[in-house]
């Protein structure tokens, strides 16, 4: 409700606009001086009209004059991000905030425009560099920066502090999509041969990753109670993760659909039985030094294997054996490629990989699906080429 007070030959209109992020009441004021030829009745009528319009202006977002972007963003981290985001997402946003604060931290929340954000995004895309490696930022990283800014503005809208999100019309420049580095079948056969001489826990990790397509965190989160030896089934129920803010921790799977069960051939079950026997022997040998975690993949004393250890081991393994290193995640891509080129439908592939939606699978492996589709066309063409003499007729249902 607006209040009006006379100050000399002018009038002051004040509107209470709630409280800012620090709990301080926000009051907006406006001064109006009536023309000299106005009567008291005309002044009152015009004052009431101006007060109503001013109050409406305050309601639609002109209440953030004293709030800097960084002040409100810190509040967003405390009030929303800590409570609602996964620890990995929260940590990533903390890292991204360094660049965002440098660009917008000093600016008033209500003064940041679409143009300001667009210039920031364009500069990141062209000139942005990774703090550690010095390499150009990927388009995905640029999108993460924009998402952080947009999420903060959305929260400000939810708190009735601004009327619109300036990120809504910002465009991220397109970039040439790089093909995923995936091992060939010949390379994978050679890797499997070399793994015969590798430590059992890492041999099982790599082979299971290829057979399952599980994410690294899902692999490290596996516990022996998740392995059904009688039916050859492994259940994914949790992940093992690490961030520099939280250290090592156990979390839920990435999405609800990431919780899944998969059946495996005897070769995998036999490897797991051998790994279980090796752990039981180590447990008995170490006695009280053994740390019981029930994890499938552990360090020498039974403690859960550190999240970066498989990556470092596999990279070193490839180097000493003169094998092309395609990253640990490439084993998941290799698994997907086998399914796709075997003609498995996208819905089944999506379920196998634990994606939240089929669209995630088709967009991630679009080139593979296109190539597989082209191959099926060749197969049909070859099968229906009646001009050629074939040694055996194609079986066709009656």
3D architecture notes:
- It is a single chain.
- This protein is mostly helical and 398 residues long.
- Helix 7 crosses helix 11 (330-341).
- It has a three-stranded antiparallel β-sheet, covered by helices on one side. A three-stranded antiparallel β-sheet has the order 4-5-8, with no helix packed on it. The protein has a two-stranded antiparallel ribbon with strand order 6-7.
- A hairpin with a 5-residue loop joins strand 2 (10-19) and strand 3.
- It has helices at residues 40-59, 69-84, 87-104, 114-127, 139-158, 185-194, 200-212, 216-220, 266-286, 309-320, 330-341, 346-353, 358-364, 366-383, and strands at residues 2-7, 10-19, 25-32, 227-228, 233-236, 239-243, 247-251, 260-263.
- It folds into three domains: 2-59, no CATH class; 69-158, DNA polymerase, domain 1 (Orthogonal Bundle); 185-339, Orthogonal Bundle (hpI Integrase, Chain A), CATH 1.10.443.10.
- The mean pLDDT is 88.
- The protein contains 14 helices and eight strands.
- It is elongated and about 100 Å long.
- The N and C termini lie far apart (83 Å).
Give a concise summary.
This protein is mostly helical and 398 residues long. It has helices spanning 40-59, 69-84, 87-104, 114-127, 139-158, 185-194, 200-212, 216-220, 266-286, 309-320, 330-341, 346-353, 358-364, 366-383, and strands at residues 2-7, 10-19, 25-32, 227-228, 233-236, 239-243, 247-251, 260-263.
């Amino acid at each position: 409700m607006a209040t009006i007070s006379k100050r000399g030959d002018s009038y002051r209109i004040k509107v209470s606009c709630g409280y800012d992020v620090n709990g301080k009441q926000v009051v907006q004021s406006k001064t109006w001086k009536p023309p000299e030829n106005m009567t008291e009745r005309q002044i009152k009528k015009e004052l009431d009209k101006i007060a109503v319009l001013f109050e409406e202006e305050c309601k639609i977002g002109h209440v953030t004059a004293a709030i800097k972007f960084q002040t409100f963003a810190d509040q967003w981290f405390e009030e929303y991000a800590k409570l609602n985001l996964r620890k990995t997402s929260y940590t990533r946003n903390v890292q991204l905030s360094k660049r965002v604060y440098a660009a917008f931290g000093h600016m008033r929340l209500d003064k940041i425009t679409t143009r300001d954000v667009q210039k920031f995004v364009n500069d990141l895309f062209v000139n942005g560099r990774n703090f550690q490696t010095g390499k150009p930022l990927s388009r995905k990283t640029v999108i993460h920066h924009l998402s952080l800014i947009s999420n903060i503005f959305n929260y400000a809208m939810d708190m009735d502090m601004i009327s619109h999100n300036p990120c809504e019309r910002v465009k991220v420049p397109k970039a040439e999509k790089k093909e995923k580095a995936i091992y060939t079948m010949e390379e994978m056969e050679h890797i499997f041969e070399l793994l015969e001489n590798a430590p059992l826990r890492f041999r099982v990790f790599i082979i299971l990753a290829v057979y399952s397509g599980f994410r690294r965190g899902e692999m490290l989160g596996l516990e022996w109670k998740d392995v059904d030896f009688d039916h050859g089934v492994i259940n994914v129920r949790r992940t093992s993760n690490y961030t520099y803010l939280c250290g090592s921790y156990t979390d839920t799977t990435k999405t609800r659909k990431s919780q899944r069960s998969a059946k495996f051939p005897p070769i995998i079950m036999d490897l797991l039985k051998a790994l279980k026997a090796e752990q039981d022997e180590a447990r008995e040998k170490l006695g009280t030094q053994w740390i019981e975690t029930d994890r499938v993949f552990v360090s020498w004393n039974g403690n859960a294997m550190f999240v970066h250890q498989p990556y470092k081991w596999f990279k070193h393994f490839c180097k000493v054996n003169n094998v092309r290193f395609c990253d640990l995640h490439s084993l998941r891509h290799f698994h997907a490629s086998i399914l796709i080129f075997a003609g498995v439908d996208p819905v089944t592939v999506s379920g196998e990989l634990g994606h939240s939606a089929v669209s995630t699978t088709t967009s991630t492996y679009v080139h593979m699906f296109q190539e597989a589709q082209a191959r099926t066309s060749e197969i049909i063409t070859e099968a229906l080429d009646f001009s050629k003499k074939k040694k055996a007729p194609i079986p066709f249902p009656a």
